[in-house]
Amino acid sequence: MSDVNIKITDREGVTHDVVAPTDMSMNLMEIIRSYELAEEGTIGVCGGMAMCASCQVYVIHDPGLEPMGDEEDAMLAEAFHVKDNSRLGCQLHMADDMEGLEVEIAPYP
């Protein structure tokens, strides 16, 4: 089993040190849900299909994330509260090179 240590700041401003598995095909949205860091029904509304932006996060420290894909870019172009460092949690799949990732969960529309 392989894990990475990441920091997630919730919508209340509280930072959580989280251990995320890299061998379970999980994405950041699923990690946030499993740790219950966002109110039920306010994250992953579309089920992780890059169609709602409810899992938007701001990347505070990027240890080397994969580049943004076309679907993610298109969804963020239509989303609220978007910043230059916005990403969709559902599109960030947990991997060993995410060690040290720091994100803040964006406000829910």
From TrEMBL:
It comes from the Bacteria. Keywords: 2Fe-2S, Iron, Iron-sulfur, Metal-binding. SUPFAM superfamilies: 2Fe-2S ferredoxin-like. One of its GO terms (biological process) is P450-containing electron transport chain. The keyword DNA-binding does not apply. One of its GO terms (molecular function) is metal ion binding. PANTHER family: FERREDOXIN/ADRENODOXIN, TRANSFER PROTEIN, PUTATIVE-RELATED. This is Ferredoxin. It comes from Chryseobacterium pennipullorum.
